């Protein structure tokens, strides 16, 4: 290898750099590479156009902190210990970041951490980290680092991107780097940058087909959920009170337009800053030897089923966007329907760095899929579990389930099972089964339909198999 003083940044080492951009609550259907109905996202789309778009990526627990813990550790919530929002991560457990650092990578984190509790914030394995306090603010973010706290004026999405760019331009060019840029946006309460404040003002945004879903074909858990567009958004979210003269239908139309426009304005800022980050990588000569990943910690309901938020096992909630660029290995403009999970990121990054994954890691490297060489034994189903239970303001009961390429089976056991502070179950135990080929919008459960008796039995067997494979225990009774 040539000395760092004489080697170009792109050829000074064989191991690729990693730039991992994670937004918060960014639904795939708010990226034009997936669906151009709502807005154009040319910055994010560049990654898809120059790399691969994943069409079937899912989280294993659709909640911010648990998903982030699974991404870092490559393990399910019951293994890494982060099952809900109030659970503090055991920072002594290994992550792909700590392993990369031990192998000589420069490791940096800017943005949302959200794995601290009770004022504890201790990201491990990073040479540099500066994080938001919990969710952080959209403007003038206060950032925490080993040196203390500082407030940086400006719009948070841009500020965090500035910090990431600073690390890249000031890097040690003799060593590869791993950068985690974790945005707050577009998390609630959806405060846009001032330059985007009037974006979409003269446009009526298209409404999702299920905006007025009455949940007649769903469980009681869905009917009781506190996340209705027409009822549960507050004045802070909407930047205005609900007009009192509106009936229920008009109230839904009105609230949806206010909500979705601010949400998309926040996405627009992310998109512009992703484009800016890609420009810097290109200018620094890092394009060919840098893996760039754009994803979110989970999906989000954009008025789908009449909801905002996530948590449920419905596809809008569990499906994550995932776009990957690495010109040395990934065909430009490619796509895949191979089923990927958030527990796969850790093993994928380690694979590219030439490192062995730990036995405790439960995902698989996506590298062969990215080369369009899907293994014959690639997964065709995945296991999901949401543990939070009666988290104030949402009331989504704990549940687990299995999704295959065609079907989805969900069991709402309605009990927190060990999470501190959980109350008695808020709904009776109940099941849902969806035929995703005939009912892709998941509007009518066929669990009690005799015609699906064999399917139901097969899915129950698959659910039990996956629970055994991943070492999770099925619900057996009320927690004590």
Features:
480 residues; alpha/beta; Alkaline Phosphatase, subunit A; Arylsulfatase, C-terminal domain; 2 domains; eleven-stranded mixed β-sheet; four-stranded antiparallel β-sheet; 12 helices; globular; disordered N terminus
Low-confidence stretches: 1-12, 417-423
Rounded mean pLDDT is 92
**Ends distance:** 61 Å
Q: CATH H level of the largest domain: which superfamily?
A: Alkaline Phosphatase, subunit A
The ordered H/E elements are EHEHHHEEEEHEHHHEHEEEHHEEEEH
Q: State the total count of DSSP E strands.
A: 15
Rg over CA atoms, rounded to whole Å, is: 22 Å
CATH architecture of the largest domain: 3-Layer(aba) Sandwich
Q: Percent of residues in beta strands? A: 15-25%
CATH topology of the largest domain: Alkaline Phosphatase, subunit A
How many helical elements?
A: 12
Helix content: 25-40%
Largest sheet: 11 strands, mixed
Reading off the top of the CATH hierarchy, the class of the largest domain is best stated as: Alpha Beta
What is the structural class? alpha/beta
Question: How would you sum up the global shape?
Answer: globular
* Count of structural domains: 2
């Amino acid at each position: 290898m040539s000395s760092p003083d004489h080697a170009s940044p792109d050829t000074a080492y064989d191991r690729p750099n990693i730039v991992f951009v994670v937004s918060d609550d960014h639904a795939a259907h708010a990226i034009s590479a997936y669906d151009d109905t709502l807005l154009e996202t040319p910055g994010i789309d560049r990654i898809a156009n120059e790399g691969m778009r994943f069409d079937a990526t899912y989280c294993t627990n659709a909640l911010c902190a648990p998903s982030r813990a699974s991404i870092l550790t490559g393990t399910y919530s019951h293994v890494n210990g982060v099952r809900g929002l109030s659970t503090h991560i055991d920072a002594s457990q290994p992550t792909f970041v700590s392993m990369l650092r031990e192998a000589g990578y420069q490791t940096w984190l800017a943005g949302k951490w959200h794995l601290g509790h009770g004022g504890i914030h201790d990201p491990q394995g990073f040479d540099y980290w500066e994080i938001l306090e919990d969710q952080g603010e959209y403007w003038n973010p206060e950032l925490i680092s080993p040196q203390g706290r500082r407030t940086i004026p400006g719009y948070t999405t841009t500020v965090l991107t500035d910090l990431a760019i600073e690390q890249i331009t000031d890097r040690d060019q003799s060593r590869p780097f791993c950068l985690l840029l974790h945005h707050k946006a577009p998390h609630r309460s959806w405060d846009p940058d001032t330059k985007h404040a009037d974006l979409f003002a003269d446009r009526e945004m298209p409404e999702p087909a299920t905006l007025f879903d009455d949940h007649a074909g769903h469980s009681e858990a869905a009917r009781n959920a506190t996340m209705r567009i027409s009822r549960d958004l507050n004045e802070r979210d909407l930047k205005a009170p609900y007009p009192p003269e509106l009936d229920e239908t008009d109230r839904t139309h009105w609230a949806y337009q206010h909500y979705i426009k601010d949400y998309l304005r926040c996405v627009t800022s992310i998109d512009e800053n992703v484009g800016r980050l890609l420009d810097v990588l290109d200018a620094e000569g890092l394009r060919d030897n840098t893996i760039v990943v754009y994803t979110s910690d989970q999906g989000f309901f954009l008025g789908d089923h009449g909801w905002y938020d996530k948590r449920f096992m419905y596809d809008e909630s569990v499906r994550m966007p995932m776009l990957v660029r690495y010109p040395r290995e990934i065909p430009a403009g490619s796509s895949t329907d191979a089923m990927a999970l958030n527990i796969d990121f850790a093993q994928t990054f380690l694979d590219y760095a030439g490192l062995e994954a730990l036995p405790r890691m439960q995902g698989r490297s996506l590298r062969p899929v990215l080369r369009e060489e899907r293994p014959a034994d690639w997964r065709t189903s995945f296991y999901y579990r949401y543990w939070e239970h009666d988290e104030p303001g949402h009331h989504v009961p704990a549940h687990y389930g299995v999704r295959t390429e065609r079907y989805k089976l969900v069991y709402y056991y309605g009990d927190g099972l060990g999470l501190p502070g959980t109350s008695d179950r808020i709904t009776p135990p109940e099941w849902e089964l969806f035929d995703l080929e005939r009912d892709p919008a998941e509007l009518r459960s066929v669990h009690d339909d005799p015609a699906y008796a064999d399917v139901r039995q097969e899915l129950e067997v698959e659910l039990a198999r996956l629970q055994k494979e991943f070492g999770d225990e099925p619900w057996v009774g009320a927690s004590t």
